[in-house]
Amino acid sequence: MTRILAFCILALLAPVASAASLLVLNKEDATLSIFDAATGQPRNANIPTGNGPHEVEVSGDGSLAFVSNYGTAQAPGTSLSVIDLRTGKERARVDLGELRRPHGLAVQGQSVYFSAENAQHVARYDAMKNRVDWRFRTGQQGTHMVLLARDGTVITANMQSDNVSFITPKGETGTQVLVATGKGPEGMDLTPDGRQLWTANSAGGSISIVDVATKKLVKTFDVGTKRSNRLKFTPDGAVALVSDLTSGELLIVDARTQAVKSRLRIGAGASGILVAPNGSRAYVAAASEGRVVIVDLKKWEVAGEIRTGRGPDGMAWVP
User: Fold this and answer.
1) 95-126, pLDDT tens digit by residue?
2) How far apart are CA 120 and CA 163, in angstroms?
3) Distance between CA atoms of 35 and 37, rounded to whole angstroms?
4) Residue 55 β-bridge partners
5) With CB atoms counted within 10 Å of each terminal CB, which end of the chain scores lower, N or C?
């Protein structure tokens, strides 16, 4: 009896997002859903966020999820949601003031870098201090996605300015190097070795490669996308996955030859991509169909789906 009681208490105290959880944002419902990554079964499907949540990232210790509340077409978002993954509740909704339309996120420990598209800024929120403690004005149009290089350089894609920013934080501000890409850089990722940045150019049907060390454009090559949305590498760096919002396809691009190996039908509004850490699967949002499609990266075929709320897009992994 004592053992049974102890087990029940431990079960009640266990984190909502335990090992191998998949986090999915539902833009139109303004919620975060948590699924068992192995079974696809929901653990918590209706955690409230701000309006139009677009991107989610998890803190270094796996205890918090940061959500950028981009807003709606009519009303720009001005907040970040901080979700406690142990309780499954929104711990804080951070008012960003004039830093409107937060979108891209990149986590560093208990802090998160975020873009503020309308304000032409990249900034950093410190969850321990509960405040924005760094900001940098890019001066570029459509500052959208954010990555962190190994040396701490902040990288952001500026969609309407057709370039990417490499920002070196210094004190409360920093310095910036701009590198021109193809038209409309949006989805982007660093190669696993950190040497190259690849951008999927949403208005150009192409991918640009930038050398991270020299901050120079290496090449831009055509992949025939109609409206690319996200780009993610497999852990071994052999393949880049690109979602095409208009065609509803996932492109498999050979990283060595830059050739499109195949195209998989995902569904209307193919957008967010998340690759499992072991490289076995990719999760691709079909935003217009309320589902996340599971792709087997060994067989290169659709292996299943997870039904979500309305407008799934940003996803994150809790190991």
Assistant:
1) 999 999 999 999 999 999 999 999 999 999 99
2) 13
3) 6
4) 68
5) N
